[in-house]
Amino acid sequence: MTIVEAQVARKAADYKSEVKPIWCPGCGDYHVLMSFTRAFAELGLEPENTVVVSGIGCSSRIPAYTNCYGFHGVHGRSLAIAAGLKVSRPDLTVVVASGDGDGYSIGGNHFLHACRRNIDMTYVVMDNHIYGMTKGQPSPTTEPEFDTALTPGGTGLSPFHPLVIALASGANFVARAFSGEPNETASILVEAIRHPGFSFVEILSPCVTFRPDEREWKSRVHPAPVGATNNPGKAARRLMTDDGFNIGILYRGERRPYQPSLVGQNIDFAELEKDFEL
Amino acid sequence: MSETPNISIAILGSGGAGALTAGNLLLEAACTAGCHGLLTRTIGPQIRGGEAAALVRLANHPIECMPERYDLLIGIDWLNANRFGTEIDVGPESLVISDPRGGDLPAVVVRGGARVVEVPIKELAKAIPDGRPNMVVLGIVAALVGLGEASFTELLEKRLASKGAAAIASSLAGLKAGLAAAANIDLGKRLSPPKPSDTKRWLVSGNETTGLGAIRGGIKFAAAYPITPASEILEWLAPSLTKVGGVLLQAEDELAAVNMTIGASYGGTPSLTATSGPGLSLMMEALGLATAAEIPIVVIDVMRAGPSTGIPTKSEQTDLNIAVYGFHGDAPHLVVAPQSVADCLFTTQWAVYLAEALQAPTIVLSDQFIGQAVAAIERPADIAFIGQRVKAVETAVGVYKRYAITASGVSPMAIPGQPGGQYTADGLTHSERGIPTSGEADHRAQLDKRRDKLDRFNYGDHWATVEGDGEFAVVTWGSLTGAVREAIERLRGRVDVRLVAPRLLSPVQPERLAAALDGVKRILVVEQSHGAQFHRYLRAHYDLPGEVRVLERPGPMPIRPSEIEQAITEWRS
User: Fold this and answer.
1) Which of A155, B45, B145, B186 has its CA 20 to 30 A from that of A180?
2) Using the beta-carbon criterion (under 8 Å), do B259 and A80 form an inter-chain contact?
3) Shortest alpha-carbon distance between residue A45 and chain B (Å)
4) What is the pLDDT of residues A35-62, one digit of tens each?
5) Domain spanning B460-572 has what CATH number?
6) CB atoms near residue B451 (< 10 Å)
7) Residue A68: its chain B contacts at CB < 8 A?
8) pLDDT tens across A55-65, in order?
9) CA distance A55 to A71
């Protein structure tokens, strides 16, 4: 991805804004923010050349907490905003932040097409298997038996598998991270941002308010037994035995990113009228 | 035989018979020979195999609407002709050319009492190797209307050059067969020769002029989701944007299209998307975002008959309500409407200028009629609007106020890449610095500024077309302006009628409309809407002087000049 490096060495703190995060105490998203700023510092990004784009939900508050340019848009459409921005301004580093409701439910269609389009950007989904901001409704990654007010007794529906979808749809980089390991997460983000094309990083980020059971994720996550592959077939086979808690980079693809040329043909408007003339 | 200043021809056939091709060739040949002309096509929903008609009006003066009755109706066949109902009307003075093997004459033709002459169109075509009936039709029209053979021969040779000598030969043979077949048929009138003109002229559709207006206005990014009848704008823009160093991105749906547009504009690139009613409905949420985050974007809505899928191929003026009122919350924004094929260029260019200058979403309400009509127009004058997006000056980090309250209401906008300008564009209510808040003071201050920036702007004379004077006024909008103008022209000498057609529909301009209607005692509101949306809009925002009547009708039957003329003359007596 396009990276405009800073002239001076940067610290993670340099990327924090004056706005105080308002997530619940214990929320995994605090650590995700930490990983963002650490990754940006390691990459030496210029804040004015970096844009963090989001939709709606707890995860989507993150742009305002960085001192980069930000866009907090409408629910589910962050990838579309980012696509328009990046294609018209390929000089910028674009990172998109989303959640499992915003990204997989209302924004599900855009997820498929962003993977397929393979524009050079990084898509981070903070997955807590619940709608937090609207107080505890099931998301596409919620377990079928998880009881909520909206779905008494559970949804009875199979959860969505984000990594399978990303890989099948053509994402050029697929990884999973855990918010409780901010250094490892920052390293994955660094690689995701550096990798050309559409990079997808699912970050398991517990919602301790509506999913206190997710405190246990700390002990359930484990490093993926094998490293990244550039073979999508191999990556797909590994996902068949994935328990949802393998942490690491699964796939680094080699597809060329989509970026139409913005160099015009140096014509004036009169040239465009020629076809109209009688 | 009498000469007439304008003549109208309908060529009809089932889909694939080539009626539309014949119509396009007729228009181009006639206009190349110096005529003015307008072509609209009316088709069913099928892509192939339905009903299709090319409606062509040729004249020695500029033409902006179709007549009530056609002078000449040619049916290649009548298989699906009844589906058009009264859209293609003929009267006792009309001539109908019918192929005896083309099926039964449609009821509307029989009822109209037109003179019918049989010509074995298909048989004549069959006698020619690879002959096509529509070329025979072209020859018949050329002979009847009084246009010379030469312009048609020249055009066919040019258009078919890539298809080889055999294709040209068979088409020319068809043309000649048609000319010969019509030699002894009398239309009863012929087109008076056009006045010679040195002006450069274009043969274009409104969707094409819309595209050019967008690029002249500075658009460098378009997001596209296909929809009838707006796709031609996007298809014209795709290669054209590439030529000027811009880009068109195909979106997965309209929700993506409008958000891509917002993203590109946030990055400093003037941006647009084009759609029709159902797509506009899908875009409404993001239009609210563009209002709140103050991102300039242009959304072109080429209106078609609704609601829902409605009649995708036919025109109506029924997206006025959603365009003006469809946003949630209090969301001041701009709505403008072009009034003709030529005006699509001006109005779209103006829309880009307004959006950029005012950092507000701007909806352009075009419609299927002017969007897909092809007209010979004089090349519109080059217009340069002064002013553009107000960019922020460099500041230190943490000082810049993206949504600063200013005298004009417009806040200088930082663009990514600019050091110190970092802010988060947000749909949440925010402070002047752009930081989310739920406080009353910030909410009100930002609502005020977003209203004030539109209200304090000087829109100049472009806000409306105001022509003529007198105590009688017709108030209309959009593509009906042409029909109203023709009706007023016909009434000249009998009654003076004022034409008032707002091009700027939002924000409303009460003082300007009051001035335009000063001294008026009777107002006829004319609109293509079953629910009289425009009349209700006028009533909601303006004090209309005197007596008011409404001539309203849903699509797809266009309101004709004679109906407007009749409504006025009947009201007077």
Assistant:
1) A155
2) yes
3) 12
4) 999 999 999 999 999 999 999 999 999 9
5) 3.40.50.920
6) 15
7) 422
8) 999 999 999 99
9) 8
Q: What is the CATH number of domain B2-191?
A: 3.40.920.10
Helices (H), B308-417: 320-325, 343-358, 368-372
- Which amino acid makes up residue B390? V
Residue from the list A63, A77, A278 with its beta carbon closest to the beta carbon of B202: A278
**pLDDT tens digits, one per residue of B20-46:** 999 999 999 999 999 999 999 888 777
B419-461 pLDDT tens trace: 999 999 999 999 999 999 999 999 999 999 999 999 999 999 9
Structure tokens at B477: 């909008």
Instruction: Give me A12's structure tokens.
Output: 């993670």
Q: What angle do CA B374, B376, B377 make, to 5 degrees?
A: 115
Q: Please report residues of B whose CB lies closer than 8 A to that of A272.
A: 212, 215, 240, 243-244
Nearest to B56 by CA among B433, B371, B376, B502: B376
Please name the helix (run of DSSP H) or strand (run of DSSP E) that holds residue B209, with its range, or none. Answer: helix B206-217
The alpha carbons of chain B give a radius of gyration, in whole angstroms, of 26
Does ipTM come in above 0.90? Answer: yes
pLDDT at A1: 64
B203-378 under CATH 3.40.50.970, yes or no: yes
A 10 A CB-CB count for B164 gives 9
What does the pLDDT read at residue A6? 61
Domain map of chain B by residue range?
2-191, 203-378, 460-572
Q: SS3 of A221, please?
A: coil
pLDDT at B572: 85
3 state SS for B121-156: HHHHHHCCCCCCHHHHHHHHHHHHHCCCHHHHHHHH
Rounded to 5 degrees, what are φ and ψ at A270? -60, -30
CA dist., res. A105 & res. A76, Å (int): 8
Residues contacting residue B86 through CB under 8 Å, at least 6 positions apart: B108, B557
Please list the residues that pair with B95 across neighbouring strands.
B72, B115
A68 and chain B in contact, CB less than 8 A: yes
User: Can you give the length of chain A in residues?
Assistant: 278
Kindly report, residue by residue over B325-339, the tens digit of the pLDDT: 999 999 999 999 999
Closest CA to B87 of B565, B553, B567, B572: B553
Nearest residue in B to A278, CA atom: B202
| Fold agreement (B2-191, B203-378) | no
